[in-house]
Amino acid sequence: MLSVKNINKKFGSLVVAQDVALELPRGVRHALIGPNGAGKTTLINLITGMLAADAGRITLGGEDITGLSPEARVRRGLARTFQINTLFPQLTALESVALAVLERDGHAHNWWRGLGRFGAEVDEAASILRSLNLQKQLRRSTRELAYGEQRLLEIALALATRPRVLLLDEPAAGVPKDESPELFAAIAGLSNALTVLFIEHDMDVVFRFASRIHVMVGGRLLVEGTPDDIARDPRVREVYLGKSFG
């Protein structure tokens, strides 16, 4: 579904991505891990077009999207979230997602007339929120939501674009550790047709929810494998997990 082939990027003499290649089949849940400064968010920015690659090729569903703008990639089914929430605190959860649905369909300029005029869009927004276990929060303003719920709302906004591939940049950032499993359980419950790649530092969460793990160090992908493969790999223990991990 998503293919990254030999992506390279540098800023002057600083290499931030070197010959990075990965393949994401349809419906997988893959994790991208590595120490701070490894280039994980940079790779997400390259995939989504927020940074232009110096070399390499990116395809989505077999279509070359390397030269497309970020918004064109979204229209073709590639969505992401960020480490820091970018939400409208005064809007309710339902209003926020309904606005995203209207924007996707080209009707956002009319939303001031009232959501009552857009029954199908409101129903879709409510369905997205229910899929993330936010059905009890539809009418609450964003500022009233717990932080973990705000992170899920951010994901709901991405889902409103109807993505085929969803990239999550530290979705549990700032979320209390005891709430992370609930957040990732909601992510794990998303449609099997949706391909997900997530960045996460909590190894308990990574090893529980990822079917495969990509380890990035110094702008390069060090290794890829199943959770068991990664846990046993001495190189990963040395540079990231620590020798005591097990």
Helices, by number, come to: 9
Give the spatial strand order of the biggest sheet: 6-7-8-3-9-10
Distance between the termini: 32 Å
Count of distinct structural domains: 1
**Share in β-strands:** 15-25%
Inertia-based shape: globular
* SSE topology string: EEEHEEHEHHHEHEHEEHH
Mean pLDDT: 90
CATH class: Alpha Beta
* Biggest β-sheet description: 6 strands, mixed
The Cα radius of gyration reads 18 Å
Which runs of at least 5 residues are low in confidence (pLDDT < 50)?
A: none
Fill in the CATH topology.
Answer: Rossmann fold
How many strands appear in the DSSP assignment? 10
Architecture, CATH level 2?
A: 3-Layer(aba) Sandwich
Q: Pairing-aware structural class of the strands and helices?
A: alpha/beta
CATH superfamily: P-loop containing nucleotide triphosphate hydrolases
In percent, how helical is the residue content? Answer: 25-40%
What does this structure look like?
The chain has 246 residues and is an alpha/beta fold. The chain has a single domain, classed as P-loop containing nucleotide triphosphate hydrolases (Rossmann fold, 3-Layer(aba) Sandwich). It is built from nine helices and ten strands. The strands form two sheets. It has a six-stranded mixed β-sheet, with helices on both faces. Strands 2-1-4-5 form a four-stranded antiparallel β-sheet, covered by helices on one side. The longest helix has 13 residues, at 119-131. The mean pLDDT is 90.
